[in-house]
Design goal:
By secondary structure, the protein is mainly alpha-helical. The chain has helices spanning about 5-25, 30-40, 45-75, 80-95, 105-130, 130-135, 140-170, 180-195, 200-205, 215-230, 235-265, 270-295, 300-320, 325-335, 335-350, 355-385, 390-395, 395-410. It has one domain (about 5-205, about 215-415): Up-down Bundle (Growth Hormone, Chain: A), CATH 1.20.1250.20. Helix 1 (about 5-25) runs antiparallel to helix 5 and helix 7 packs antiparallel against helix 8. It is found in: Cell membrane. It comes from Aquibacillus rhizosphaerae. InterPro entries: Atg22-like (IPR024671), ATG22/LtaA_families (IPR050495), MFS_dom (IPR020846), MFS_trans_sf (IPR036259). Keywords: Membrane, Transmembrane, Transmembrane helix, Transport.
Length: about 425
């Protein structure tokens, strides 16, 4: 395989930038910070886990509604980067703002977290769609997987710095409280994300697009309606999205609520942060490995492998009792979380018409985000009804099983001919 181009490297490097948000805000420091804030306010562990799950459901619902609409408009020449830029700055600004909200204001923390998540996931809609502009179909599996690999490697640096500051403050080796240390981690995340996104802005440009025309918003809605009406032309694509809806639901829920789940099991904050650090380290080479194996065995077969491992994770989580069990669980997740996400992105990109990539990645987003509503909601409701977070995680098994069954009926991308949508809609 020839060397990566400047645009490919710059696109992949955004994963390096944005993944700091994923590990520090979505997975590690913020959930623990929020749990501590809620506990101090007299809220029980299962209830605070439920509130976090409900919050994730709310902001994902908002993006699920906006995704296809914004994506369809962004297919016009020059608009993809503008939409990406708006959500990028929203996410970075809200992440930095988390550092200035009083720690006893748990509800305000969730509101700010919602805007940060809207920015991060919103920018990712257009970032993912840029893959059709930076590389070829033949290189997509490896480019997508290497992007996730870079993300895991890059995120460990600000994560290590954040963990060090928090642990040193806990042991009174730094003259600051753990609360202040966590807030510093939020600022580090915003700075890391902002600085290392610069290559994306400089070197990645929209190559495939629809020419501008009068009344772009109205015609974007008409084009979106036409796509929905002619959905039979995209059977393979939407069948894949249906499978994706179910299995990515479980993946996203486990990622976003893992620390909250571990905390409910009585695992200390420091232990959780260390486990998550090693999860990132292990996940990086496995994400790259998935990309290479996909070139040999096909992306679909490697998606099967990832889903089966996640089924094992959910079953094992039900019997979780010790910190060692949590370590084993985390390492299992690490072997597949990057690979399953990377190959889903590249598999879908091979199915979409290039000029309408934003519109279809908007659907990719809506299926993924609606899935992210049901997963945390399922965990939250189950945790409250049973009083057990383990039962909530175990309930995710059914989602993976449904996902792998539907995926079986999705043809390989090379077997699919996808028509372009006409740029003019009368």
């Amino acid at each position: 395989m020839k060397r990566f181009t400047k645009s490919e490297n710059s696109w992949m490097f955004y994963d390096w930038a944005n993944s700091a948000y994923s590990i520090i805000i979505t997975t590690a420091v913020f959930p623990l910070f929020f749990k501590a804030s809620a506990t101090n306010a007299g809220i029980s562990g299962p209830n605070s886990t439920a509130y976090l799950g409900y919050t994730i459901s709310i902001f994902t619902f908002i993006l699920a509604m906006l995704g296809p609409i914004l994506g369809t408009i962004a297919d016009y020449k020059g608009l993809k980067k503008k939409f990406f830029t708006f959500f990028f700055f929203l996410g970075v600004s809200a992440t930095a703002l988390l550092a200035f909200i009083p720690s006893d204001q748990w509800l305000l923390l969730l509101v700010c977290y919602t805007f940060a998540a809207l920015g991060s996931t919103g920018a990712n809609i257009f970032y993912d769609a840029f893959i059709v502009d930076v590389t070829t179909e033949k290189r997509m599996n490896r480019i997508s997987a290497r992007g996730y690999g870079l993300g895991y490697i890059g995120s460990t640096i600000p994560f290590i710095i954040s963990i060090a500051i928090i642990v040193l403050s806990q042991n009174e080796l730094l003259p600051i409280s753990t609360t202040i240390a966590s807030k510093i981690a939020f600022l580090i995340t915003a700075l890391w994300w902002g600085i290392f996104a610069i290559p994306m802005f400089r070197n990645v440009h929209q190559i495939h697009y629809i020419e501008r025309e009068s009344q772009p918003i109205i015609k974007s809605f008409k084009r979106l309606g036409k796509t929905i009406k002619e959905i039979r032309k995209y059977r393979a694509l939407f069948l894949f999205l249906l499978a994706y809806f179910f299995y990515i639901d479980g993946v996203g829920t486990i990622i976003s609520m893992s620390t909250s789940y571990g905390s409910d099991l009585g695992i200390g904050a420091t232990d959780l942060l260390i486990v998550l650090f090693f999860t990132q380290v292990v996940a990086a080479p496995f994400a790259v490995l998935y990309g290479r194996l996909a070139e040999k065995f096909t992306g679909k077969k490697m998606l099967y492998v990832g889903i089966i491992i996640y089924i094992i994770v959910c079953i094992y989580a039900y019997f979780l009792e010790t910190t060692l069990d949590f370590w084993i669980l985390a390492m299992l997740v690490a072997t597949s979380q990057g690979g399953i996400q990377a190959l889903s992105r590249s598999y879908f990109a091979k199915l979409v018409p290039k000029k309408n990539a934003n519109e279809f990645f908007g659907f990719y987003n809506i299926f993924g985000k609606f899935a992210s509503i049901t997963g945390p909601l399922l965990v939250g409701v189950t945790a409250q009804l049973t009083g057990s977070s383990s039962m909530g995680v175990f309930s995710l098994v059914i989602l993976f099983i449904i996902g792998i069954i539907i995926l079986y009926f999705v043809p390989e991308p090379k077997e699919v001919s996808v028509p372009e949508i006409t740029s003019r809609v009368l």
